[in-house]
């Protein structure tokens, strides 16, 4: 039995003293109101109305229950209001500040198509987990080791000049005694200053005999790209980022590196919804879309 619907008919008929008027107030037909009241009477085991006259008179039992029925209706209305508010409340998501605006716009649009209101906040790598823990956002895209990743984006080296080989080897950056120019550097973005990316590069740098300063971490992507555009230095980046800066990208010769992301959320349900409904759009924002990666790699190899 629809207890809320039955109580709605009972309350309005009881307040109006008429099945016809009460049904109209409750926005239902008289026959529906009569059936619901009858079902409620059967459920409660007592008559609520005395139907001996044209008016619907409450029985003593009905008068006793009318206040409780009103409270139930108010509680049901409050529940419906809270549900509507919760549906319309944006889900705040922290994402890397390297995500391009068009990708974020597509992400928000896709979320609406899935009945989700998404509010995107860009933040630095170290800040995003803190935003989740402090409940400033409900979820965040964070850097994770490869074996925990939901999304993976290949990393390579990009430069202004077009390389001749299909891969870029760090050993070619080893300084020579006859060099008159400063040693070329590899610039890391803040997003890649994480152990599973930085540490293998440091070990490789030391094994190849490169100078410590040849591996540098920039304060921002803008600074890193500017250093590369103004020199012969190289940028550790994704194929999509290289294309954005009109740089020539090649995979690293000695290592297979990837920028790997997972979802951190206060509630696992939020993370599951984002993965299931917006996984493709999130991949696009991060530069992990397969078609774009393959297109850029093929263009770089030509």
Describe what is shown at a glance:
With 302 residues, this protein is of the alpha/beta class. The protein has 11 helices and 11 strands.
Explain this structure.
The chain is α/β, with parallel strands linked by helices and 302 residues long. Helices cover 48% and strands 18% of the residues. Strands 3, 4, 5, 6, 7, 8, 9, 10 and 11 form a nine-stranded mixed beta sheet that branches. Strands 1-2 form a two-stranded antiparallel ribbon. Helix 1 (3-16) crosses helix 3, helix 1 (3-16) crosses helix 4 and helix 5 (101-113) crosses helix 10. The radius of gyration is 32 Å and the shape is rod-shaped. The relative contact order is 0.13.
CA-based gyration radius:
32 Å
Note the overall shape.
rod-shaped
In round numbers, the mean pLDDT is: 90
Helix percent band:
40-55%
């Amino acid at each position: 039995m629809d207890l809320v619907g039955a109580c709605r008919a009972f309350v309005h008929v009881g307040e109006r003293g008429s099945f016809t008027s009460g049904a109209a107030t409750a926005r239902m037909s008289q026959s529906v109101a009569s059936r619901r009241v009858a079902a409620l009477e059967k459920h409660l085991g007592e008559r609520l109305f005395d139907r001996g006259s044209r008016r619907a008179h409450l029985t003593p039992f009905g008068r006793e229950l009318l206040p409780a029925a009103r409270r139930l209706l108010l509680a049901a209305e409050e529940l419906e209001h809270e549900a509507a508010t919760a549906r319309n409340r944006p889900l705040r998501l922290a994402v890397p500040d390297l995500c391009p605006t068009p990708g974020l716009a597509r992400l928000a649009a896709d979320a609406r198509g899935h009945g989700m209101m998404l509010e995107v906040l860009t933040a630095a790598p170290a800040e995003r987990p803190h935003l989740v823990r402090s409940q400033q956002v409900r979820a965040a895209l964070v850097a994770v080791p490869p074996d925990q990743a939901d999304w993976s984006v290949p990393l390579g080296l990009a430069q202004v000049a077009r390389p001749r080989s299909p891969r870029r080897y760090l050993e070619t950056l080893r300084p020579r005694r006859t060099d008159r120019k400063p040693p070329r550097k590899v610039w890391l973005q803040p997003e890649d200053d994480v152990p599973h990316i930085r540490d293998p590069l440091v070990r490789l740098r030391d094994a190849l005999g490169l100078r410590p300063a040849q591996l540098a971490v920039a304060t921002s992507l803008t600074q890193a790209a500017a250093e590369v555009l103004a020199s012969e230095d190289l940028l550790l980046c994704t194929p999509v980022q290289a294309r954005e800066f009109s740089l020539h990208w090649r995979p690293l010769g000695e290592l297979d590196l990837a920028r790997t992301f997972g979802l951190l959320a206060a509630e696992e349900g939020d993370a599951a919804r984002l993965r299931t409904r917006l996984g493709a759009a999130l991949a696009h924002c991060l530069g992990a879309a397969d078609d774009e990666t393959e297109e850029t790699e093929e263009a770089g190899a030509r």
